[in-house]
Every structure is written in C-alpha cells, then in structure tokens.
Amino acid sequence: QVQLVESGGGSVQAGGSLRLSCAASGYTYRRYRMAWFRQAPGKEREGVAGLYTGGGSQYYSDSVKGRFSISHDKAKNTLYLQMNSLKPEDTAMYYCAADPRIISTPVVPREYAYWGQGTQVTVSS
C-alpha cells in the first residue's frame, strides 16, 4: 500500500554533489523507519543512511559518514539524501525503503517492507 518514488539521480564528476528525493504516499501508519540503500553491479545491497520519521538518531554507513546527510520533510512526505564529495565508488543504484515497525532494527534490506524502484547515481573520476 505504501508507495515510494525516488528521483534526483544522474551523472556527476568526482567531488560533486547530488540530492536524492523519495516521495512517499499511501501511508497506513503515522510513523515509519526510512532508509537509503545502494547496490552496485555484482555487489550486495547495503544500507547507506536511515532515520525514524518521528525523530531520533540517524544511521550512516562508515563509507558515507561525513559526506552524506539524510533528512525527512513531514509536510511533503519526502525523504532526502544529500550527497557531497562524491567518489567513483559511490556509483550504484540507490533505493528508498520504509517499514512501519517501531522496534529498533539494523539498517539491512530484510528489515524494510516497502521499496522504491531506485535511481541511478554515476560518479566519474
């Protein structure tokens, strides 16, 4: 029932910036855990950043900490991922995910029930 649509991906040179957006609709519950994942060809899907829409701590993978920032606009029902100082190794398909459970879980794919279709990010050297 929850629908997630990502946008904002594209091609950028190393050191550049992009902001990804995830528009959410069809929410049944008041609050959700939401996160960004990415998957490069031949590699497993990994959690990049996560938050709870009701507020609280944020999660960042070690590889993006200090460069990426996750945020949520409640009024627009939109999740964002600001990506700065991009590196070629950031190249991947980026996915938005959400889950209504209140319990604390790791930011791993199996813990998220709803997924967007993804947006491609390509960083050239």
Describe the 3D structure:
- The chain is an all-beta fold and 125 residues long.
- The protein has strands at residues 3-7, 10-13, 18-25, 33-39, 46-52, 59-60, 68-73, 78-83, 92-99, 114-115, 119-124.
- Strands 2, 4, 5, 6, 9, 10 and 11 form a seven-stranded mixed beta sheet that branches. A four-stranded antiparallel beta sheet has the order 1-3-8-7, with no helix packed on it.
Write the layout of secondary structure elements.
Blueprint: E1 3-7, E2 10-13, E3 18-25, E4 33-39, E5 46-52, E6 59-60, E7 68-73, E8 78-83, E9 92-99, E10 114-115, E11 119-124
Parallel strand pairs: 2-11
Antiparallel strand pairs: 1-3, 3-8, 4-5, 4-9, 5-6, 7-8, 9-10, 9-11
Cα separation of the termini: 40 Å
In N-to-C order, the SSE pattern is EEEEEEEEEEE
Largest sheet: 7 strands, mixed
Low-confidence stretches: none
Mean pLDDT over the full residue set: 94
Percent of residues in helices comes to under 10%
Report the total helices: 0
Instruction: Report strand %.
Output: over 45%
Cα radius of gyration in angstroms: 14 Å
The best one-word shape is globular
Structural class: mainly beta
- Give the number of DSSP strands: 11
